[in-house]
Amino acid sequence: MPFLSLSSQDTALILGALLGFLLGSVPFGYVLVKLRTGEDVRSFGSGNTGATNVGRVLGRKAGLAVLLADALKGLIAVLLASLIGPAASAGAAFGAVAGHCYSPWLRGRGGKGVATMFGAFAILAPICAVFAAIVLAAVAALTRTMSAGSLAAAVALVVSSWWFAMPTEVTLAALLSSLLVIWRHRGNIQRLRRGEEHRFGERRS
Question: Which H/E stretch holds residue 37?
Answer without folding.
Answer: helix 28-37
